[in-house]
TrEMBL record:
Record's keyword annotation contains Transferase: yes
A Pfam match: TPR_CCP1_N
Protein name per its UniProtKB record: Serine/threonine kinase-like domain-containing protein STKLD1
Catalytic reactions of this protein: L-seryl-[protein] + ATP = O-phospho-L-seryl-[protein] + ADP + H(+); L-threonyl-[protein] + ATP = O-phospho-L-threonyl-[protein] + ADP + H(+)
Coiled coil: none
Entry EC no(s): 2.7.11.1
UniProtKB keywords: ATP-binding, Kinase, Nucleotide-binding, Serine/threonine-protein kinase, Transferase
Species assigned in the record: Cnemophilus loriae
One example GO MF annotation: ATP binding
Signal peptide: none
Enzyme class label: transferase
Keyword hit for Kinase: yes
Record-linked InterPro entries: ARM-like, ARM-type_fold
Amino acid sequence: EFMQASWDIEEVQAKGIQHLASFVKDKSAFPFLLKCTEVITLAMKTHTDSLELQVEGCTLLLEILSQALEQGVMMALDQSVASCLLHTVRKHSENEEFLSMLCTLLMMVSASEVTVENLRKVGIIPDLLSILRRFLHNDKICLSCCAVLWSLAVSENNADQAVLESAVPVTSAVLQKHLQNGGVAESACSALWALALQGCLTDSDYEPTAALLLDALRMNPERAALVKNGCLALASLVRLSETAALAILLDSKGSGMELIKDEYHLHFDEPGVAEALCLLMNEMVQYDEVMLDMRSQKMEKLLSEIKLQFPFS
């Protein structure tokens, strides 16, 4: 009430946020803090010029959201709050450290379908792509933005086809730049999978994207989630074009089929990985030439192994 009574006074908002932050460590205060998220974002929107207030507000929101996720509470941001955050993103688009925090915040709230829909409505995708282009070197920003892109691209009522198509080269650039960073590569693979599912790639994208995804699998073989999402992305590409299937077979760095075998043997107890590999192979055998090659590489033996390992799946 104290904050709401004096929206226009920056010092009141700053003191209010600092006081709310003092309750963060008190677990019993959590249900009340949850109700304060709108007040905090509104304070941020009203005083966008004050970087100090933005940082303190964002830090507090991150604390509240972290506790919410720990307790399995799904935080949904309404459209006015989503609009506030976008306004803040635009106002401080050059401040790398602050944007890193803000993008982490967006990633955390994008677990909610309601929030994703509201972020889509306020038109956040071009801003995310702009941030990625500007801060391609920043692994934290890249991880967060690709995760938000994934959430936006997989949402069912997607009216952003043209905007999402422009996300393909940027997401590929992120994966290329951070191939050796497992977390970022995993996030970028997920985003590419969602973009492929939405049909955002063109004929000229299939071969280089397939090669890039294979590189990600080679560089991060131990990450089960990356292997799963990478294979799902490859399956989506193969469904669209034989070019992608041939790119997997004829990859200049070694046979994609051998890589698939190696990945399965590394994660033979992970049903999600096995399922993604089966889906990929199922898409590949729709092309006669590819199927003949798979036979010559004894892929039937691998399929039999998977069938024995997961007889009830």
